[in-house]
Design brief:
- There is one protein chain.
- The chain contains five helices and ten strands; from the N terminus they run H-H-H-E-E-E-E-E-E-E-E-H-E-E-H.
- It has about 260 residues and is α+β, with helices and mostly antiparallel strands.
- The chain has a four-stranded antiparallel beta sheet with strand order 5-6-7-8, with no helix packed on it. The protein has a three-stranded antiparallel beta sheet with strand order 1-10-9, with no helix packed on it. Strands 2-3-4 form a three-stranded antiparallel beta sheet, with no helix packed on it.
- A hairpin with a 2-residue loop joins strand 2 and strand 3.
């Protein structure tokens, strides 16, 4: 129809780039535009008479449409343009990227956290892995039934000790390469002794370390097991990680990662 053609002429060449607000403004402008009426020709009417009749019909249609939509469409178009400008300003004020990391020094924050276990839940030499505030710990009892808590990851290559570690007296043995540690102090006893030849070779390039040990206690009433962990340990590790990524020369103390 002629109304649709006049509406299409008012649309911008790329309406998606203008956004919904500008498209709505264009729609309001199209509604406010005068529509071209259709005049039915009378019988035996000459060409000049038809043209004059069509011009009169257009003037009547324009006056009626202007009286009907003019003021309201102007207000709506103004509001749409104002909303579009406000949205554009808000979009420009927001940063394109947000920093989600930090390289600041994170201090420890020690806190007793419940493991969800009771002392009666564990038998002698039994182990239970838990993640407390982002820290992987292994709660268990030694051969005499005494409660202990160590890090669940072996210092060698991070093997989970909960996947088959043996507790022999007060010693825990890694299930992969046989590294053994004291559960009371974390002291290293043997480093990668098995399997023969292969185990010692895998241990050569890795610095020998003790196993992490955590303070553990059970409540007098109920026997709930609690572990003293650093709740900022994960955040501190991430800060050190981002420092290494952002500093191409290595650590700020002259060493390298």
């Amino acid at each position: 129809s002629r109304w649709y053609k006049s509406f299409r002429r008012l649309l911008p060449p790329h309406p998606r780039a203008m956004g919904y607000s500008m498209g709505f403004a264009a729609l309001c402008a199209a509604l406010a535009a005068p529509a071209v009426g259709f005049v039915t020709p009378a019988a035996h009417q000459s060409v000049p008479a038809l043209r004059a009749s069509a011009a009169a019909g257009q003037q009547d249609s324009a006056s009626s449409q202007g009286a009907r939509f003019g003021p309201a469409a102007g207000v709506v178009c103004g509001l749409a343009v104002a909303a579009s400008a406000a949205a554009l300003a808000r979009r420009r004020s927001q940063p394109k990227t947000a920093a989600r990391y930090t390289t600041q020094v994170i201090l420890p924050a020690l806190q007793w956290i419940k493991t969800g276990l009771k002392a009666s839940d564990l038998q002698a030499t039994e182990l239970k892995a838990k993640n407390l505030a982002g820290v992987d710990v292994l709660v268990g009892k030694d051969g005499s039934g005494k409660l202990f808590c160590v890090g669940n990851l072996c210092p060698h290559i991070g093997t989970p000790m909960s996947e088959g570690a043996d507790v022999i007296g007060d010693v825990i043995v890694c299930p992969l390469h046989g590294s053994s540690f004291k559960v009371t102090t974390g002291e290293l006893i043997d480093w990668c002794p098995s399997p023969p030849i292969i185990g010692p070779l895998t241990g050569l390039p890795i610095e020998k370390k003790n196993l992490a040990v955590f303070d553990v206690r059970s409540s007098f009433f109920g026997g709930d097991i609690e572990v003293l962990v650093d709740t900022n340990a994960k955040k501190a590790w991430e800060a050190d990680y981002w420092k290494g990524i952002l500093d191409a020369q290595g650590k700020d103390d002259g060493t390298y990662y």
